[in-house]
Amino acid sequence: MEYFTLSSGMKMPAMGFGTYQIWGKECRDSVRLALDAGYRLIDTAEDYENTTEIAAAICDSGVLRQDLFLTSKVWKIHLHREGVFAACDSMLKILGTDYLDLLLIHHPSKVIPLDETLTAFSELKKSGKIRDFGLSNFGIELCEKVANLGIMLPSVNQIRYSPFWNNEETRCWCDGHGIRVTAHTPIAKGKIFRDPVLTALAEELGRPVNHLVLRWLFEKGMVSIPRSKKMEHIRSNLNIFDFSLPPEYFTAMENFFKEHAVSE
User: Fold this and answer.
1) What is the mean pLDDT of the chain?
2) Concatenated DSSP letters for the chain?
3) How far is CA 221 from CA 29, 124, 206, 212, 247, in A?
4) Separation between Cα atoms, residue 152 and residue 227, nearest integer Å
5) Mean local confidence (pLDDT), 36-50
6) Helix axes 168-176, 140-149, angle to 10 degrees
7) CA-atom Rg of the chain in angstroms
8) How confident is the model at residue 94 (pLDDT cuts 50, 70, 90)?
9) Cβ of 201: how many Cβ atoms within 10 Å?
10) Which domains are assigned to the chain?
11) Which residues are catalytic?
12) Tell me, what's the pLDDT at 264?
C-alpha cells in the first residue's frame, strides 16, 4: 500500500474501500473481504446507515485499530454544534473506537452557519475524537470560504472524479492549497468497463481497465475509494502499485478525460 502525507502530517492510504449504498450482510461481507485483501482505509458516513456492519467486519477481521484509517462524514442537517458532537459520538460508539482518523462535512449546509460547524470540528480535533478534518462535495467557492474563516483548514476534500466526471478545477485548487483530493465513484459505477476506448487502451497497456483508471488517479495525486461486492474486483482495485503509467498512456488518459468528462 502506498500512502499520501496530508497537510496535517497524517499518513493516508492512497487506496480505500468505499461503502456507499452497501448495507446489511452484504456490507459486512464486502468490508471483511476488503480488509482481508489488504485495504486499511474504510470510508463510510453517518448517512450511509452501515456503520454497525462495518464495525462487525472489522471485529471479524482481527485487524488492529491502529492499523486502520477510518473516515466518516456528518450529514448536512446535523452540522450545528451539538449535532456534530452527537453524530461523532454515535459513530465512535458504534465503531467501538475512541477516535476517527478523518471526519468530513458530508455536504455543505445552506442554513447552518459554516463557522459554527468548523468550530465544532475544531473542538473535536482538540479533544482527540478526530485526528483530522476534511470536506466532501465542496466546490472552489465553498473551499475558499472555509479557508477564509481561518478556524480550521481541511486536509481532504472528497469529490466525484472519474474519466467521465470533471471536477478538475476543484482538484487543481485543492492541490494548490495543500488539500488532498479523494476521488469517489472513480470507476464511474462500472462505466469504465463498457467504454471501448478505455478498454482498448488498457488492453494495449496489458492491464485491466480499472488498473489504468485507478493508477491514472493515483499519479494525479488523488486517493481513490472504489467500492465492490466481489472479491476479484476488490483485490484487483488494490493492485495498482506495482507499475507506473508510461507517459503516452497518462497523456491518453488526460486527453480522454478532456473529451469525455462532464462538469457539475
Assistant:
1) 97
2) --EEE-TTS-EEESBEEE-TT--HHHHHHHHHHHHHHT--EEE--GGG--HHHHHHHHHHHT--GGG-EEEEEE-GGG-SHHHHHHHHHHHHHHHT-S-BSEEEE-S--SSS-HHHHHHHHHHHHHHTSBS-EEEES--HHHHHHHHHHTS---SEEEEE-BTTEE-HHHHHHHHHTT-EEEEESTTGGGGGGG-HHHHHHHHHHTS-HHHHHHHHHHHTT-EE----SSHHHHHHHH--SS----HHHHHHHHHHHHHHPEE-
3) 30, 28, 23, 15, 15
4) 30
5) 97
6) 20
7) 18
8) very high
9) 19
10) 13-259 (3.20.20.100)
11) 48
12) 63
Q: Is the pLDDT of residue 51 over 70?
A: yes
Amino acid identity at 52? T
What percent of the chain is modeled with pLDDT above 70? 100
Q: State residue 11's pLDDT score.
A: 98
Grid coordinates in use for 80? 450545528
Closest by Cα among 246, 198, 201, 200 to 219: 246
Q: What average pLDDT does range 146-150 have in this prediction?
A: 96
What pLDDT is attached to residue 263? 84
Give the number of residues written for the chain. 264
